[in-house]
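**Fold in tokens:**
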Amino acid sequence: MSSNCVLSVGIDIGTSTTQVIFSRLTMENTAGYFSVPRVSIVEKEVVYKSPVHLTPLIDQSLIDGDAVREIVAGEFAAAGVTPADTGTGAVIITGESARKENAALVLEKLSDFAGDFVVSTAGPDLESAIAGKGSGAARYSEETGEATVNLDIGGGTTNVALFCDGEVAARGCVDIGGRQVRLAPDWTVTYLSGSAQKIARFYHLPLETGQRAGPDTLKALCAAMAQLLEEMLGLSEPSPLLREVETPGSARFAPPRPIRAVCFSGGVADCIYRSGQDALAFGDIGVLLGDAIRRGRLFSAFHVIPARETIRATVVGAGTYTTSISGSTIAYDEGLFPLKNIPVLRLSAEEQQRCFSGDRAFLEKKVRWFLSQSDSDRMVLAMEGKKSPSYGELRALAGAAGPALDAALAPGLPLILVVHSDMAKALGQTLKGLLPPSRPVIAVDSIRVEQGDFLDLGRPLMGGLVIPVVVKTLIFG
């Protein structure tokens, strides 16, 4: 068996904190010498964790990109790592920071730390999945079969993800977090978020910036936040207020199965799992919010499991769980990688069947529409595929997809297809026979993507057997 190691970096710039980790991912061909190669990530080891830094801000709306860059550069130096050493990973701006006015600019300032294949992404739905993997909730659901929810409660948002058998089954995000209200040592409110204002008005709580807030008022606010999380998880009917505090751009949490277990991560999780802290220890409502959640129905209605990571769950997830590996029966032209931020057009089952029937005109029209809407000259055509397609079916699919994409894409750009079923190599070879030599082809399988996703494709690994892939959602709200 052959193996290969790659160094992965995770950089998380959150509402309250900024962190960096480095992980070593080991890939191995687990098939025998006379079998079709089967490559998977067999080990994930965190080799360096940075201290937790406060996210530097210029003001309430602007992240200090230069200061963030200094933090990241310092942690690379402390870990003894250069950007050229990294092969994969993620730079993510999470929580309320993802909505700061210059989020994209900050990512640009960090771009030279990205090596050949580091993702720059932000978005509440992706963050919820990453945090749930870093906390251990995903693995717990896989090991026990229990539908497990992870609540990643940070400074500005709570990312919620339901895992069933290790996979994300539902996700959502609300503007509830420990830094929604910031306080001076004398209990004067120094910052009151828009979400906290909505909750205070709904419950007629006297909270104003510049005014002292009594502990009872803040406890009532935190109890209301805990109740909203209970509503989100189905313990009572959702109130109109819950819809008002949903994070823009997030999915609406809709679990397909009854929830059995819950796990908490994020900075507030430390206040949930550990009681007895000074209420103003962090200059915000984090401790009070943690107390309210611990005393609420989330603890009595569900099996509460310990988190493997709390405040570091997202950065650990970003550094070790964002990368997946394509199947080993793939086809591609050399010299195309890495490719980043390619928008995905996923065909429905009905649309896929039209392609298997050879409907080129329909597909070309769909592709041209998608390119006009996506503000990109590149795209990924994705579909479920078939487990054992006949040669006739492969030929019909290639006969529809190849000419349609070739006609719609600018000359020289790669034709990229992603299928979930194990059929990419045969499809890619068939496409190459139908297309002009000047049109590069990439066909990979064993990857599941959805409409609206973006794809990063790294340089081939394991002697060219597999391609590292990151599926992501880019949102700058």
About this structure: The radius of gyration is 24 Å. The CA atoms of residues 235 and 448 lie 32 Å apart. Residues 31-38, 473-477 have pLDDT under 50 and may be disordered. DSSP finds 15 helices and 21 strands in the chain.
